Amino acid sequence: NAGVTQTPKFQVLKTGQSMTLQCAQDMNHEYMSWYRQDPGMGLRLIHYSVGAGITDQGEVPNGYNVSRSTTEDFPLRLLSAAPSQTSVYFCASSYATGAQQYFGPGTRLTVT
Amino acid sequence: GENVEQHPSTLSVQEGDSAVIKCTYSDSASNYFPWYKQELGKGPQLIIDIRSNVGEKKDQRIAVTLNKTAKHFSLHITETQPEDSAVYFCAASRGDSWGKLQFGAGTQVVVTP
Is A98–B32 a contact, with Cβ atoms under 8 angstroms apart? Predict the structure, then answer.
């Protein structure tokens, strides 16, 4: 199993550009989530999904959209990038609530 | 909502000594408390977790203790080794929150030989 994979590893955007961060898992996990990691702030939940077709907002959802059309994939879309979205983004998955979450390797995004 | 505070933010220890990281949480309904280790350039990885019906859990050199009355939990690493150097995060969640984890700010642990 590859576990949780994320692409790209690094990305630089200009303010106002859009992009999609990809996340995929091959463990047949129902629960998937996106976090952002900023210095001194730990990881903060952006959006999460409890299964295909079901998504909900986390702690910091503004400026991000998600969809979940398959169990495997959970892309994160930035519609109009802002410098405040410069961060490291992690995708995670687990088979159930309260179970171990498996994290991907992260995407480092810089918005200039 | 849940608020998790983690101390200290940095911790330097000599190889072979013990390291202790402490976290407090605010939501008395939280019942799942995992600890993650993050090495440079990698995603967090679960190292140990504890649930509210247990007061202490051990796994080799790592242990976690939970005091539900005081709403705090701690990570203990004994006989530290250079490979224990990393950032450690505590987290908390409620059983009815679909696994939404609230993370502490992290502790940078440096083990010097």
Answer: yes
3 state SS of B78: coil
Pick from A25, A97, A102, A107 the residue to mutate for testing the B interface (most B CBs within 10 Å): A97
pLDDT digits (tens, 9 = 90+) for A35-68: 999 988 889 999 999 999 999 999 999 999 999 9
Strands B19-25 and A76-78: unpaired
Q: How far is B18 from chain A (nearest CA, A)?
A: 23
> What six digits make up the tokens of B34?
């995992």
B68 — alpha (psi -120 to 50), left (phi > 0) or beta?
alpha
> What's the CA gap between A17 and A30, in Å, rounded?
31
Q: A27 CB near a chain B CB, below 8 Å? A: no
pLDDT band at B99 (very low <50, low <70, confident <90, very high): low
Contacts B46 to A, Cβ<8 Å: 100-102
